[in-house]
Structures are given as structure tokens and as C-alpha cells.
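Lab meeting prep.
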Amino acid sequence: MNEGLRESLRAGAQLALAGLAAAALLAGTWALTRDRIADAEQRAKLQALEIVLPPDRYDNDPIADAVQVRAPAWLGSESATVSRARLAGAPSALVLEVVAPDGYAGPIKLLIAVAADGTVLGVRVTAHQETPGLGDNIEAGRSDWITRFAGRALGDPPASRWQVQRDGGDFPQFAGATLTPRAVVAAVRRTLQFVARHGDAVRAAGPGATLSFDDAPAPDDAP
């Protein structure tokens, strides 16, 4: 074997060993950190839930007790996570990941908590692309507008007033940005209608189940 070939083989072997060592290091790091990463993700999800779901409303793990719901006509996405809160074994609230698809600049993602009696516990925006200084007033950090849903329910206000004020409803719009609050109001109302119609099935399903609902709000129910 000539010297050049020997050097090439030696270099190749060294590269292979270095690759194996790097792979082993990555595998070891992942094994050491995966539990901490999972714990951090769990804490982040719980913190998001606690924004809309008061801690005294549950004594279970709502995230572990979640289901997947396919009800795009109601919740605005092909698949939505619904976390279920229970207190002393009894259903106390649902926390739904909802999308308002008709925002001014695109879909608006929401987290909506609904108590077992159909009352809104809280609503928060989790992602949006609305215009800064106008549509972004849906953020709790910019105004208290989003907090106006807490304590509301179907019938409070009456169905005809689940709209922004410009459309004859109870909820104020923003100067120069009516489409954004209109989309959020409609999404919250559809969510309450969904819970009223399908909440029992969602609460009764086993943890991790996937439920599909192909129906939609009736035309008369549209905001």
C-alpha cells in the first residue's frame, strides 16, 4: 500500500471516528436534557392556560387530559387542542385553541376558556399579524379590550348583540380597525356555540382522543 493511500485511509478513519463521537455526544446530551425540555414545555403550556383558567378552577392536569378536536367550521382550524379542567373529578372548564380566520391581516389565534356553565372565563390572543397601533389592541398588553369577554355567555349579550358596536352589537371596535375586533367577537361566539352543542361529547372522551364534528353554525347563528 503506497503512502498516499495509507494517509487517505487514516484520514477517513479519523473523520468516521469524529462523526461517531459527535453522534454519541449529541445522543448523550439529548438523553440528559429531554426530561428537562419536556418539563419546560409542560410549564410553558400550564402558564398559558393559567392566563385564562384560574388555578382554583381545577385540580387535574388539563394538558394531560386534553383531546384533539376537528371542527373547522366552529373552531377555525383543521385540528384544535382542547384542554379539560376538572375539580374534584367533575368537569369545570374547557380551554380551546381557536383561530379567527378572518382577521384584517390574517388568522388570529386565540385561547378561550369556557366554564362548565357556559360562561367565558378568559380570552387571550396567542398569535396574530394585525396592524401595529391599530389591530394589535386585541393584545392584553396593549389594551383591556380582550378582557371584556370574561363573564359573558350565550344570551349575555343577546344573540343579535354578539357583534361590534358598528354592527349594532355590544363590543367596541377600534378606530380605523373594525375587521380585527369583529373577527375576534365572531370567533368567541362560535366557540360558545360549539361548547353548548358539543361540550358534553368533548368532556366525555378519553384523554388523547380525536373527535370530529362535521356540522357548522346555522346561518341564523352567524354573527
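Slide two material, second protein:
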Amino acid sequence: MKLPSMIKGWLNTATTPERLLEHYVSTGDNCHLVALVEQFNISIYHYLMSLSDKETAEDALQATWLKVMKVQSTTKQHTNVKSWLYTIARNTLIDELRRQQKWQWQTLEDHHLTGCSLSREFESTDRLALFNLAIMQLPFYQREVFIFQQEGFSILEICELTNENFETVKSRLRYARKNLKAMLGNHHE
């Protein structure tokens, strides 16, 4: 009897990110690391690109994987490898932005952009480009939690990733949505 491919994946626990990391650390065999990179590289790169420019994102991504390569043992923090990888990527990006002196502390008002001027300036662009531009105008912490939520993390997982309390994360998400709605005006539908 042949099992459907979806069920075969359930029986093969060696392919979970946690198992891959565990096998990589215990054996040092790069094939397990390659499998982790294949599974998470694009989504981590997308996350980093959403918070920075292409060059900074590429540097932070490379530094993230170099840090993963140096892991000597698995611990309790590795029970959710996806969250652990995003935490490394986040901290690496913040370090890189500080090194480049591009770390942003200003609020949305500091950008001197309103929903009307943003809409007028980009009337001819498509809605996705307008949405992406609006996201980039958000303050770093609002943009970060919004992107984490778009990547599929729950509020509790975002709290763990950012080392912030539940109410802070909820507040940042609320302000991010409010600011996006104000910037996009009628284009947000």
C-alpha cells in the first residue's frame, strides 16, 4: 500500500527544522544546514528586506547563517527553530543598522508624510508598490511587528522574538495598521 506524500511527511520527523538543527549540531554534516537554509532563507531574506535595503538585508542574512553555523549545542531556545532563526536575523539586522548609523528612532510624524501627499505622489504606481512604500514609512518597531505578523507569527511569538510584552506588541500592531490606513487613504481596500 502506498501512502500519500502528505502522510509520508508526517511520519518522517527527521525533516523538522528542530531535527535538522539537532542533526547539524551533533554531526556537523552540512547537508542538514543546507536543508535549513533551503527552508528558511527566502522568508528570512524577505523579512530583512522589509526592514532595510537590499545590501543591508544581504549582509544581515549572511551574518545570520554564519551565526547558525557556529552553534555548538541545542538548548531549550531551539525548540522553535523558526523563531530562533528570526531572532538571530532581527538582532543581526539591528546590529548592522547601528553599525551603519541607520538605526531609526523617529516617529511617523518625523517623516513629514501624510496620506494625501503619499497618495498623490504615487497615483500612477500599482497598489502593491504603494502598500510596500507605506510599510517602509512606518517606524521600525511598528514595521517589524507588522511584518512578523504577515510572516505568520502569533502575537505571543512576536513577543518572544522582540523580547517585548504582549500589550506593547498589540499596541505596535494597532498603530501600524492605523498609520497604514492613514497613509494609504482610499487605496487600502
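Talking points for slide two:
Residues 30-51 form the longest helix (22 residues).
DSSP finds ten helices and no strands in the chain.
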